[in-house]
Amino acid sequence: MPDVVLLDKAVQDLKGLLAQMSLGESVTLADTEGKPLALLVSLQAESTSPPDDADWWQHWETMAREISASWQGDQSAVETLAEMRR
User: Which CA distances in Å does 39 have to 11, 36, 65?
Assistant: First the structure.
């Protein structure tokens, strides 16, 4: 994303310019001579869809199996956490 955009170009495709910006990102709008005229700041958060419950749960189950297979301590992970919380 460029830091400076000509005002005429921004007017032609404002929706496209905003779509390229993430939340809090700013672009300086300038005239044809490069003189700053305004600051455009995106207030639109990136659209994210909530994770599918089945996929989320499967991801955690896979991580649990990987951790269990690689665990090298005398105590289990649950026992270690319980001891840390005392």
Answer: 14, 8, 50
Domain extents in the chain: 4-41, 53-84
What DSSP character marks residue 1?
Answer: -
Q: Torsions phi, psi of 73, nearest 5?
A: -85, 165
Each residue of 40-58: pLDDT tens digit? 999 987 666 666 777 888 8
| DSSP states along 7-63 | HHHHHHTHHHHHHHPPTT-EEEEE-TT--EEEEEE--PPPP-PPPPHHHHHHHHHHH
